[in-house]
Design brief:
about 210 residues, eight-stranded mixed beta sheet, 6 helices, globular, binds coenzyme A
Length: about 210
């Protein structure tokens, strides 16, 4: 098991620990991803498309991703409860042109990445509202901030009211970015959120938990 970076007590007193994901987590992450999509996007994306989501294909892609992050620029974490991975968060360099380093200013080795993106965060539906999402996102934000990154963004479906409520509760705000994407044969709109700079003690508002290594 990897280093545990974040431990939190859930409302029902069970313990959730957050740790860096390893290739051995690929299957669990794929299962959480498919179950999460099917539950979260019911009524937003076509039912047939959601039914057809494939755990095995996602597992293969995740294993490759987790095995190939040699420069540690695309960290992912999982949340464990009672020995089972119940959620994951994935992050890495931003995909948006407006967040790329200015042309002509190549990154100096060791300099902090100017911006990072949270690509996805999903919790197994039977563990929604357990505190797992908050614990994982807080871990990712802290890690990127420790690396010196100042701009943190993510994209969320405009119609995903629950996901947006979660992000807004833990310190993220829409930054005006919008894009239409094709998913499952329909066009849907995504909105971009940005993590807000918070005053000293900000981490208390994200998490009621303790950090340790072990
Ligand atoms: C969004 C998600 C990752 C949040 O994880 P979670 O473990 O369920 O959320 P937490 O228990 O950490 O919630 C923290 C706070 O966010 C807010 N929140 C979470 N889910 C919410 C919802 N469905 N509606 C309104 N507010 C919500 C609440 O204020 C909550 O605190 P509270 O329970 O003490 O009131 C999870 O619900 C999920 O996987 N959803 C489906 C996928 C998704 O939408 N992902 C985001 C877009 S990529």
């Amino acid at each position: 098991m990897g280093i545990v970076v974040h431990v939190t007590k859930t409302p029902d007193s069970s313990t959730i620990s957050v740790r860096r994901a390893s290739p051995d987590d690929a299957q669990a992450i794929a299962e959480v991803g498919v179950a999460g999509w099917q539950a979260a996007y019911r009524g937003i994306l076509p039912a047939g498309y959601l039914r057809g989501l494939n755990v095995v294909a996602r597992e293969v892609a995740w294993r490759m991703r987790l095995e190939s992050d040699d420069d540690d620029m695309a960290p992912s974490w999982v949340a464990d409860r009672a020995g089972r991975a119940i959620g994951f968060v994935a992050s890495g360099p931003p995909r948006d042109d407006d967040l790329q380093p200015a042309e002509g200013s190549p990154r100096i080795d060791g300099s902090p990445p100017p911006a990072a993106e949270i690509y996805a965060i999903y919790v197994q539906p039977d563990a929604w509202r357990s505190g797992a999402g908050r614990a994982m996102l807080s871990t990712a934000v802290q890690e990127w901030r420790q690396r010196g990154t100042t701009g943190l963004v993510l994209w969320v479906l405009e119609a995903n009211a629950a996901g947006r409520a979660f992000y807004e509760h833990v310190g993220w705000r829409p930054d005006g970015g919008r894009q239409d994407i094709d998913l499952g044969g329909v066009t849907v709109t995504e909105v971009r959120y940005r993590f807000q700079e918070l005053p000293l003690g900000w981490s208390d508002t994200l998490s009621n938990s303790s950090f340790r290594e072990g």
